[in-house]
Write a structure and sequence with these properties.
This protein is an alpha/beta fold and 188 residues long. The chain has one domain: Glutaredoxin (3-Layer(aba) Sandwich), CATH 3.40.30. The protein contains six helices and seven strands. Helix 3 links the parallel strand 3 and strand 4. The longest helix is centred in the N-terminal third of the chain and has 20 residues. It is globular and about 40 Å long.
Length: 188
């Protein structure tokens, strides 16, 4: 029993140590073309908007607003990261090539897209398992509720806010939080 208690204390200490020092984006993911991307390395010092996306959803027009944010703020350090997901009523059934074709021809997407992932349940990727556990405002921790849920991540790699799917990328509350994050200088 003492050994189990000690092991549990070690796990808790390791999780606490990681959360106190590590970035919330310290993960490797595959881009839509299958290349491994070290998120913490590639996006170091940038503000990120991480979104689970789908092409056959009532919220799919948010792609245009995400692209608009990308175009307006990329030079200031914003990175929009789209993670296609087919978990919600199979609203992202396409292959990587079909997703790319749809996003670029229909919405002119130029921001980074990644391989299709799961965001909830046992099959959820490690990034989303972590993001959904972080206590955030205004939405708080818990499973992803639908397509186009958004995580705002600061230049230090820490989650700043989480926005519900129906919160549009151009919503004043989201834009205010985004601009505040962009106004903070990157750590040296």
């Amino acid at each position: 029993m003492r050994t189990a208690g000690f092991a549990l204390m070690c796990v808790v200490a390791a999780v606490w140590a990681r959360s106190a020092t590590a970035s919330d984006i310290d993960f490797k993911m595959k881009s839509l073309d299958g290349r491994e991307v070290d998120l913490a390395e590639k996006y170091q010092g940038r503000v990120l908007l991480v979104v689970n996306v789908a092409s056959k959803c009532g919220l799919t027009p948010q792609y245009a607003e995400l692209q608009s944010l990308h175009a307006k703020y990329a030079a200031q350090g914003l990175g929009v990261l789209g993670f296609p997901c087919n978990q919600f009523l199979q609203q992202e059934p396409g292959s990587a090539a079909e997703i790319r074709q749809f996003c670029t021809t229909r919405y002119g997407v130029q921001f980074d897209l990644f391989e299709k992932i799961e965001v909830n349940g046992d099959g959820a990727c490690a990034l989303y398992k972590h993001l959904t556990a972080v206590p955030t405002q205004p939405k708080g921790p818990g499973p992803i509720s639908w397509n186009f849920e958004k995580f705002l991540i600061g230049r230090d790699g820490k989650v700043l806010a989480r926005f519900a799917p129906r919160t549009k990328p151009t919503d004043p509350e989201l834009v205010k939080a985004l601009e505040a994050a962009l106004a903070k200088p990157a750590a040296k």
